[in-house]
């Protein structure tokens, strides 16, 4: 499938908007299925005060931020609305230990680094599902608008013992909006300088047994000139569709499904590498370069709790399909696919004044990629299969909190790896 799609893009390399018929059909089927699920789940809970907890710090369950042995920042929806943030990456710039870099105008590659690590060492999750590009190994924040986001949890420092090698620098978990209360609709349109426009609409509905949230947004801008030379503006446009639904057939069972599709088009300028050197050597110069990206992410999960919520188990399947075409002096096309299946179970118990929690997880992940550069007759393909086993123990006793975690990763192409972590914290009066 990957090879066929890449060859399809090669056949239409002179038309940036070309995508294979099979890709469109598969995405149409997925989006149609999501809409059908939303109808079945149609009847989010009434608005309630939100307890300050962090779900990312543990593979299952929630932890109070003041009982963590790691640095965490939470950005909630009210903060995003107060700032009128269009792209989430703009809000992340203010988080301590987080660096955001964008390669040119809006819509171009946007990387997030944590504590000096590289972009592919920051694990980005959407409600717990990995949404990084399987080919690039990192997530491109360029098309991630803030309108569909309820809150963001940023864990700084290595979380590899819980999530694997992708989390060396930290973890960013994006928790999307859910429907709430009676059926409601929202829509907006706004415009500004540089011929910038943004429109969007969403609908949500839910109660104690089911919730559903659907949204669509589109943004376009003529951009500005990012080169010191010339006057060409570099524009961008992106469209996104998002679906999130949950069903609770019993008090101790919750089923969830989400789907996110993004289509991005961005104009960029090249760097002058001419030889012999010219007065503009090393600088960004005007040029007719374009990048098109399509991203499709999805996840379905089932969570069951027992023994008064002391024992929780969750099974999740998530997938990612990212395709990127670069049109410039050299044409290149890349494609990445991922399937991931995770089983997590945790049990909490008390002994006197001490609270204990044991948890275990098994993660199976399959990834494939392809990359084509016709000018150099390059067509690279590959895939990898990884299975990770995780075990954790956490203790809370008075003002003291501590925990240990161990992870073993078995990879079919690389050497197996073991990762461990010990953390502790003590709250002063």
Structure, explained:
It is a single chain. With 429 residues, this protein is mainly beta. It is built from five helices and 19 strands. The chain has a twelve-stranded antiparallel β-sheet. Strand 4 and strand 5 (129-130) form a beta hairpin. The longest helix has 20 residues, at 21-40.
Backbone structural class: mainly beta
Element string (H = helix, E = strand): HHEHHEEEEEHEEEEEEEEEEEEE
Poorly predicted parts: 1-50
Share of β-strand residues = over 45%
The largest sheet has its strands arranged as 8-9-10-11-12-13-14-15-16-17-18-19
Mean pLDDT: 85
Task: Name the helicity range.
Answer: 10-25%
Number of strands: 19
Q: In this structure, how is the largest beta sheet organized?
A: 12 strands, antiparallel
Q: Give the terminus-to-terminus CA distance.
A: 59 Å
Write down the overall geometry.
globular
Rg over CA atoms, rounded to whole Å, is: 23 Å
Q: How many DSSP helices? A: 5
Topology:
Blueprint: H1 2-11, H2 21-40, E1 71-76, H3 77-83, H4 88-92, E2 98-102, E3 110-114, E4 122-126, E5 129-130, E6 149-156, H5 160-163, E7 170-176, E8 184-192, E9 196-206, E10 210-224, E11 234-250, E12 253-268, E13 289-306, E14 311-327, E15 332-351, E16 354-373, E17 378-397, E18 400-411, E19 417-426
Parallel strand pairs: 4-7
Antiparallel strand pairs: 1-6, 2-3, 4-5, 6-7, 8-9, 9-10, 10-11, 11-12, 12-13, 13-14, 14-15, 15-16, 16-17, 17-18, 18-19
Quickly list its features:
429 residues, disordered N terminus, mainly beta, twelve-stranded antiparallel β-sheet, 5 helices, globular
């Amino acid at each position: 499938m990957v090879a066929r799609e890449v060859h399809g893009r090669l056949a239409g390399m002179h038309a940036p908007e070309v995508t294979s018929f099979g890709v469109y059909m598969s995405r149409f089927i997925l989006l149609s299925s999501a809409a059908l699920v939303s109808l079945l789940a149609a009847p989010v809970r009434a608005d309630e005060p939100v307890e300050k907890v962090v779900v990312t710090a543990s593979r299952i369950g929630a932890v109070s931020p003041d009982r963590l042995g790691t640095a965490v920042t939470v950005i909630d929806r009210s903060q995003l609305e107060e700032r009128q943030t269009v792209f989430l990456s703009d809000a992340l710039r203010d988080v301590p230990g987080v660096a955001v870099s964008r390669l040119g105008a809006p819509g171009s590659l946007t990387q997030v680094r944590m504590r000096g690590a590289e972009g592919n060492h920051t694990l980005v999750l959407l409600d717990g599902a990995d949404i990084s590009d399987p080919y690039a190994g990192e997530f491109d924040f360029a098309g991630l608008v803030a309108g569909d986001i309820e809150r963001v949890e940023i864990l700084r420092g290595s979380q590899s013992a819980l999530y694997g090698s992708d989390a060396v620098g930290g973890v960013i978990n994006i928790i999307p909006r859910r429907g709430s209360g009676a059926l409601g609709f929202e829509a907006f349109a706004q415009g500004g300088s540089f011929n910038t426009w943004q429109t969007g609409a969403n609908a949500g509905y839910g109660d104690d047994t089911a919730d559903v949230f659907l949204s669509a947004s589109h943004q376009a801008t003529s951009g500005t000139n990012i080169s010191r030379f010339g006057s060409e503006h570099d524009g961008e446009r992106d469209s996104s569709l998002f679906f999130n639904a949950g069903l609770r057939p019993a008090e101790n069972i919750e089923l969830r499904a989400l789907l996110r599709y993004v289509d991005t088009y961005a104009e960029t300028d090249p760097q002058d590498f001419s030889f012999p050197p010219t007065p503009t050597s090393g600088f960004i110069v005007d040029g007719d370069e374009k990048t098109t990206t399509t991203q499709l992410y999805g996840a379905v999960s089932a969570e069951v709790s027992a023994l008064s919520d002391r024992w929780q188990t969750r099974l999740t399947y998530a997938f990612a399909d990212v395709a990127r075409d670069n049109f410039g002096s050299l044409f290149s096309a890349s494609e990445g696919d991922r399937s991931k299946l995770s089983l997590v179970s945790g049990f909490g118990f008390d002994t006197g004044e001490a609270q204990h929690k044991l948890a275990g997880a098994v993660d199976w992940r399959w990834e494939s990629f392809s990359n084509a550069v016709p000018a150099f007759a390059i067509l690279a393909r590959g895939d990898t299969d990884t299975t990770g086993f995780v075990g954790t123990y956490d203790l809370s006793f008075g003002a003291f909190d501590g925990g240990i975690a161990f992870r073993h990763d078995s990879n079919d192409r690389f050497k197996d790896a073991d990762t461990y972590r010990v953390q502790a914290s003590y709250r002063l009066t």
